[in-house]
Write a structure and sequence with these properties.
Blueprint lengths: L3 E5 L4 H12 L3 E6 L10 E5 L5 H8 L4 E4 L9 H22 L4 E5 L11 H16 L4 E7 L1 E3 L7 H9 L1 E4 L6 E2 L1 E3 H14 L7 E3 L7 E2 H12 L4 E4 L2 H18 L7 H7 L9 H4 L10 H7 L3
Parallel strand pairs: 1-2, 1-4, 2-3, 4-5, 5-6, 6-11, 7-10, 8-13
Antiparallel strand pairs: 9-12
Helix pairs in contact: 1-6, 2-3, 3-4
Organism: Pantoea coffeiphila
Pfam family, one: Epimerase
Protein name: Short-chain dehydrogenase
Amino acid sequence: MNRTVAVTGVTGFIGKHIVEKLLSRGFVVRALTRQDSTYTADNLIWVRGNLDDRVALTELVRGADCVIHCAGQVRGSQEDVFTHCNVSGSLRLMQAVQAGGHCQRFLFISSLAARYPQLSWYANSKFIAEQKLTAMASDISLGIFRPTAVYGPGDKELKPVFNWLLRGILPRLGYAESLLSFLHVSDLAEAVYQWVIAETSETTPFELCDGDIEGYSWKRLQEIGSRIRGNPVHLIGVPLPLLKLAADVSMLSHRIMRKEPMLTRSKIRELTHSDWSASNFHISKYINWRPEVSVERALRERLF
């Protein structure tokens, strides 16, 4: 396999796993990075720049057969922060692909959050990016992935939750009846690889999860944790006013430290939504992909 794939977001949690998967399957990878990286591998070519740098984007996609767009803004104190990266940056990358005239395939790693754009700035930015990329794509074959909550080695968001679960405490956000879904990063990386080699032209957004048809209620996560521990897990509801207070503190910290916050009142609306169940039915019709890692297996084998 000597095909070339251009990838953004390579230094991030998801992008790193996707690149490792592609390299292991013999692809040449051109990777966009804002800073010098010490990571080297055969067939890995670093391109210095970011989504604002049109020259770097032109160099990134030069000679590439396919683009995997993983880079995205997940933290922000206002909507413009998300729009600038997730919408405008994505469109600049698509423009570079079209101007290059070589690459014919573009995979946008969106989010299940885009299913409910009204919930958060992040969700809305991903949804708008999907719509604008679709309108722009023209003769470019566009794929859209909407993975649910992704976890695995290198993840910093769900790992603390799973660690506390295995210690016997599960903090519950939102309603007791809420449904959740998850996806191990190795399964997401495999799905990307299968999309690349399948060459499907389907542009409808694909949902991706670990394949659990029931979804995960908080009660079910509690039961899974109890089975693995051999001891009870205490489910503790976090009151919404406390979450809002934490978000306000996070915003204040942003102003002092000048770092974009993860937790905002916008993000809380997303985190406490009642239905994050998902289905792989649609994607499985188009590519040869089935997830292998359930939450229970990941917890038992510490695959996070």
